[in-house]
Design a protein that fits this description.
Elements (H helix, E strand, L loop, with lengths): L1 E4 L5 E6 L23 E6 L4 H13 L4 H18 L9 H19 L2 E5 L2 E7 L9 H11 L12 H10 L1 E6 L5 H10 L14 E10 L2 E11 L6 H7 L10 H13 L15 H10 L10 H21 L6 H19 E9 L8 H7 L4 H4 L8 H6 L2 H7 L7 E5 L13 E3 L4 E3 L1 E5 L10 H12 L16 H13 L13 E6 L4 H7 L15 H26 L11
Parallel strand pairs: 9-10
Antiparallel strand pairs: 1-2, 2-4, 3-5, 4-5, 6-7, 7-8, 8-9, 10-14, 11-12, 13-14
């Protein structure tokens, strides 16, 4: 704790968190030694509800405005309040709920490594940019994430390291999709995920789970797990790779995109609309202007959504039709409409990927990563459109419009800043040869993986009390529900959502399966596969080729590592 004096000679104190965690690199990925080391970000905590703020002020007074005492007071206060309400948040007064959320956020941030200052009777959260995602701090990040885990490790080793070595040399490997009815494999995933340092909270929306098993002499042993799901809506690196951006003004692609947007517009539902979406573009624009539909409003959110899509699509069509009418903002708005409806058909994210003990130190995590283009994983994208799209587009027409090639881009992320050893030099098999898994860049740290389950529960209660104004948790109503609910709750309470970002950049890796991604995604062109024979359709062929390539590339290193494993606790290479 440090103490200083402000210009008004009133005490200004600060308390540093227990673990030091770095703030993000800038979006361009400039190395930290090229960035200012003196910058910091300061977030005042000022609750929007006056009664809530008075409660928080009283806690400050009891702590005599001293940070260390303040932390102790809010811990005691939270324990008391939750005991009084027996953990039933629905019985908690809204003002108390808001304070409880703010207190929980502060405690989360302290454990993550931020500073808390009290300046002129106001709480301030301070994030320092002196150390930016240095790989030397990975152990601190690991410890902080482990502290957020709600479950202790309860995975039982299926074999010892000696037996594991025999399996990787002689076993057959199969990637098994975990079905809800398969309790044994579900239990392997449930207990196996407890060995990860990052807390696992499950997912809302599309997801599929898999277990990699090695079989030898009739005995099958789990050696890795994987989960596939939808990525966050905001992902600049992914969108750049897919081509979700406006081409140049004179690009030949513009006419093709305009045609694609026109066919998307023909898929729109027409009932209760103030204008027919299927009109010729010239007539549509004229009627739009005549009826002043830029000012249109409706009490029906479904109609508002449709009109928003129609506006974006129409204006982009016009802007793309003639270089003299070109408007980059309007083109990008139309491209976002294409992205909204196609993203989950052309992209998938590997959310969980790695080895289970005792296979981590034996480089089996790399084999799991090499399975990301497995035929069973590719088929996970075959699903119906979501609820939001059903309200805007005719289901059958949109299904016919959407691409049906499976994922064209597959991405995944490392757990820690700068670099992931697991994904280094990973190769994905094709009919002849392989494709490299490439590093696309680093995230900008705008996740809330550092926020505890306790804070999330409070955020959910706040969100539910908002009714229709809250974030829908219904399937098909948009991705990243956990983060959006926390952001919504923080805004309602009066806390800047940015204060809760983990600010830890993570390396992003990608596998692009076609050479004309932007043309396929934006213009509906046929894929030009990097594997001239197309993707491997047979699971058995894919697994056999993958295991052969892995053994050629990594088996000797794995055996060397295995011979040095002499005690438990060394199997932490992948996680």
């Amino acid at each position: 704790m440090s103490v200083s004096r402000s210009k008004t000679d009133r005490p200004s104190l600060s308390l540093k968190g227990s673990s030091e965690v770095e703030i993000e690199l800038n979006p361009e990925g400039i190395p930290e030694d090229n960035l200012s080391s003196e910058k910091n970000v300061n977030y005042p905590i000022s609750l929007s509800d006056q009664k809530s703020q008075r409660i928080l002020n009283k806690i400050l007074q009891l702590a005599n405005y001293e940070p260390k005492s303040f932390v102790s007071e809010i811990e005691n206060w939270q324990e008391k309040i939750e005991k009084e309400h027996s953990g039933n948040l629905d019985l908690m007064d809204t003002s108390l709920l808001h304070v409880n959320f703010a207190v929980s956020v502060i405690l989360d941030l302290l454990s993550w490594g931020v500073d808390v200052e009290i300046v002129e009777s106001q709480i301030r959260i301070v994030k320092h940019n002196k150390q930016l995602n240095s790989t030397t701090k990975n152990s601190s990040i690991r410890d902080a994430m482990s502290g957020l885990k709600s479950k202790a490790i309860d995975y039982e080793l299926p074999v010892d390291s000696v037996e594991a070595l025999k399996l990787i040399q002689n076993g057959d490997f199969n990637l098994i999709k975990i079905l809800p009815s398969n309790q044994k494999d579900s239990e392997i995933f449930r207990t196996g995920i407890t060995t990860w340092s990052m807390p696992y909270r499950g997912r809302e929306g599309r997801s599929s789970r898999y277990v990699l098993k090695a079989t030898h002499n009739g005995v099958s042993v789990p050696c890795g797990i994987m989960e596939v799901g939808d990525d966050a809506p905001f992902s600049p690196l992914r969108d750049k790779e897919l081509g979700f951006f406006a081409p140049s003004r004179d690009s030949d692609l513009n006419a093709k995109i305009a045609k694609r947007l026109n066919s998307l517009r023909m898929c729109m539902r027409r009932e209760n609309m103030p204008i027919d979406p299927s009109l010729d573009i010239t007539d549509l624009q004229a009627q739009w202007i005549k009826k002043s539909l830029d000012k249109f409003s409706s009490e029906d959110p479904k109609i508002r959504k449709r009109m928003n899509y129609l506006s974006r699509i129409m204006k982009a069509e016009v802007a793309l039709s003639n270089t003299d009418l070109w408007n980059e903002n309007e083109v990008n708005a139309g491209i976002r409409a294409i992205k909204d409806v196609t993203l989950n058909r052309v992209h998938t994210e590997i959310v969980i990927c790695g080895a289970l003990p005792p296979f981590g130190n034996l480089l089996i995590g790399k084999m799991v990563a090499m399975m990301i283009n497995h035929p069973d994983i590719r088929s996970s994208l075959d699903r119906d459109i979501g609820i939001l799209l059903r309200d805007t587009f005719d289901f059958n027409k949109l299904e016919a419009w959407l691409p049906r090639y499976g994922p064209l881009l597959i991405t995944t992320k490392g757990l820690y800043p700068r670099h992931s050893a697991q994904y280094n030099r990973v190769r994905i098999v094709k009919h002849e040869g392989y494709l490299p898994l490439r590093k696309l860049g680093s995230t900008i740290g705008q996740t809330m993986s550092n926020i505890s389950d306790r804070t999330m529960k409070l955020a959910v209660e706040i969100n539910e009390r908002l009714g229709d104004k809250g974030v829908s948790r219904e399937y098909g109503s948009g991705g990243s529900k956990r983060q959006r609910i926390i952001q919504k709750a923080s805004t309602v309470v009066g806390i800047n959502p940015a204060v809760m970002y983990a600010d830890i950049t993570r390396p992003v890796y990608g596998l692009s399966l076609v050479s004309n991604l932007q043309e396929v995604v934006l213009a509906g062109s046929k894929p030009e596969w990097r594997d001239l024979a197309g993707v491997i359709e047979s699971p058995q062929e894919y697994e056999e080729k993958t295991v052969l390539l892995w053994r050629q590339q990594w088996l000797n290193t794995s055996l060397s590592r295995g011979s040095r494993v002499s005690s438990e606790g060394e199997d932490n290479y992948e996680r």
